[in-house]
Amino acid sequence: MDDEFLKAFNQFTEQWARPMPQPEFRIYYNSHTGEIIAYSMEKIAGDYILVDKDTWHENRYDLQVVNGKLVKPEPIIVKLRPGSTGTPTHPQDVSVVSRDSNTKWGLDAS
Predict the structure, then answer these.
(1) DSSP assignment of 91-107, as one string?
(2) Which residues contact 84 (CB under 8 A, 6 or more apart)?
(3) Are 48 and 26 in contact (CB under 8 A)?
(4) Which of 17, 18, 69, 106 is most deeply packed, by most CB within 10 A?
(5) pLDDT digits (tens, 9 = 90+) for 21-66
């Protein structure tokens, strides 16, 4: 009896079982600017690209879509340099802001 039930059950599941749908990891974006609008696995109106699971889980809104591909921005390197303009700080500790100091620090993007 158990063998017959198991055989019938296996035949039923082979005949009617459907494969689980694989999720689609979508990034929706503005087609004019390439700016990312949303990360979703749902089908919503708008332009999107499919990405892998790891990229989708990063959830980075600083990326852009250019010609249907995800583009990472160039890194920006900024240095703190002494100068005549900027934030006045304590002469021996740049982390302490001091209105009375002549030592000023500013950002240099070069």
Answers:
(1) TTEEEEE-TT-S-EEEE
(2) 104
(3) yes
(4) 106
(5) 889 999 999 999 999 999 999 999 999 999 999 999 999 999 999 9
